[in-house]
Amino acid sequence: MSDNELVTTSPTQSTFQDPGLPEHKLRMGDTDPVAAKRSERIVVGLFAVSILGTIGSLLAYFLVVPNETTDSVRNANIALGVTLFLSLMGIGLAAIHWAKSLMSDHEVVEERHLTASDAPTREAALTKLNDGVKDANIGRRTVLKGSVITALGLFPLTIAVPLIGSVGKDWDVSKFRHTMWKKGTRLTTDPAGRPVKASDVTIGSVVHIIPEAPEEERRSHHWITEKAKAVVLLVRMDPADLKESEERKSWSYDGIVAYSKICTHVGCPVALYEQQTHHLLCPCHQSTFDVSDGAKVVFGPAKRPLPQLPIAVDSEGYLIAQDDFNEPIGPSYWERLK
């Protein structure tokens, strides 16, 4: 067999016939006006759900106002969440059902060409678009048009009204500078609230800490919101491993150090401690802090060390705070001095 024969019989040289588009299958609504009308009513109904959800979200924003209780905050969040869900879900499902049952489903193939089409091609494209609009009977479906315009027109209010309503409210950023920690406040376990003795903290152990408060107070909404700023991670290591400046040598106790759990990047809880390296990892964006060296950043997007809580021991051997954190906790914000 010659080389020429090998080339002509090679499978890679074979040609295949273009199968073209599959045969178009009519939908029930294409042949049955009753089915088409039913699909239209479904779409209108879904847009109506979106409209009611938008109105409901506005009512929830103004009427379900949270006060100083956790239950009220939860109820307000649930009311806003459910109504916003209905508003978005109605638009989304209506768009899907409209596209599947009412819009033209004829497949159209357009060959790739230069970006600048000639006049006949543009006219042909415009004709196809007009044919699609006519096929969907949008012009005669006034209720459908009204529902979609109303739903899409009202939905932005769910975002705009809360934004406008926030103007003039509490923008006092000084509250971020201080937490519940005060001189003499005992360190207690989170969430039980049990005071911690220095003698109970072994080398290599990590304890999640909150300020001491009566159990009834710890259940209040105000305390829960303030607790979010005051959470602490307590670590004990060999005092020889600590690298402390002269200013901070009195802030620890026998190798026990306490740092804010709030990451200085975007505020995630930092709680993954590696005993051998003394590194503390934030699980959100992998910012890593060296607990043995002032919780300085050794890796990741965070730009500042974790604020340190100065601690001491009272006459009964319990760990107490000497004062509040040495600087504001959490991420950067405007008007921050440090």
From TrEMBL:
Q: Domain Rieske spans what residues?
A: 229-320
Membrane topology of this protein: Multi-pass membrane protein
Coiled-coil spans in chain: none
Kindly give the InterPro entries that the UniProt entry links to this protein: QcrA_N, Rieske_2Fe-2S, Rieske_2Fe-2S_sf, Rieske_Fe-S_prot, Rieske_Fe-S_prot_C
Task: Look up the record and report any one GO term of the cellular component aspect.
Answer: plasma membrane
Any GO MF annotation of the entry: oxidoreductase activity, acting on paired donors, with incorporation or reduction of molecular oxygen
Which cofactors, if any, are listed as required? [2Fe-2S] cluster
Composition bias of kind Polar residues appears in 1-17
| UniProt keyword annotations, A-Z | 2Fe-2S, Cell membrane, Disulfide bond, Electron transport, Iron, Iron-sulfur, Membrane, Metal-binding, Oxidoreductase, Respiratory chain, Transmembrane, Transmembrane helix, Transport
Spell out the subcellular localization from the entry.
Cell membrane
Q: Where is the segment annotated Disordered? A: 1-27
Q: CDD domains from the entry? A: Rieske (cd03467)
Instruction: Report the protein's function.
Output: Iron-sulfur subunit of the cytochrome bc1 complex, an essential component of the respiratory electron transport chain required for ATP synthesis. The bc1 complex catalyzes the oxidation of menaquinol and the reduction of cytochrome c in the respiratory chain. The bc1 complex operates through a Q-cycle mechanism that couples electron transfer to generation of the proton gradient that drives ATP synthesis.
Which family does the entry's similarity section mention?
A: Belongs to the Rieske iron-sulfur protein family.
The name this protein carries in UniProt is Cytochrome bc1 complex Rieske iron-sulfur subunit
> Which classification does the entry list for the species?
Bacteria, Bacillati, Actinomycetota, Actinomycetes, Micrococcales
